[in-house]
Amino acid sequence: MKTLQFITNRTNRFDEIEGARLALEGGCRYIQLRAKNCPLDEIEQMALLLLPLCHRYQAKLIINDHVAIARSVKADGVHLGLSDMSIAEARRILGPKAIIGGTAHTFEEIKKVYKAGANYAGVGPFRFTKTKKDLRPFLGLEGYSTLLTLLHIAHIPLPIFAIGGITLKDVPSLRDIGVSGLAISGSLLQAKDPRMETKQFIQAFTTNL
After folding, report:
1. Residue 161: which H helix or E strand, with range?
2. For the whole model, what pTM was predicted?
């Protein structure tokens, strides 16, 4: 199943809650709460506001980094970076039903995420993006194609989410090479109509399947 994941980001137009609401109204059913520079109590309050909103749309709520907050608010899972808590420890804390995603860039890192028991790998960046600092080398379409081929040869059935500066025009190519998901932030929030942009992303990603 092809999945669109919206990653929250505060802009001059929208805060995290409003951005998520617009994505949900546009049909997105997978929200990742990412608020890197906010205090923990503020992130927890955002999660408590987002959870009933996600429930209203039958959507999943994932918390970036903070396993304790995910457990406290009963979110659907977490997304963990390379320097965050280990996937195995997060699984021990959150249980077998939690959705746990892990960040990766190389084939070896994807294998590590898979062996640790993650449900998916967020792999990127596709290209430059202003929403994330300390970016690693861009993968581009060729990079994802190579990684997906290696995963197929190694019989690793881990869903791969492409992330990093993805625009609507990129979607058909990423869909056709076989990525399982797209993690989007700036393209939706910067759009004139984020709801319609979300709908167009979903339509483009799920067409001709």
Report:
1. strand 160-163
2. 0.94
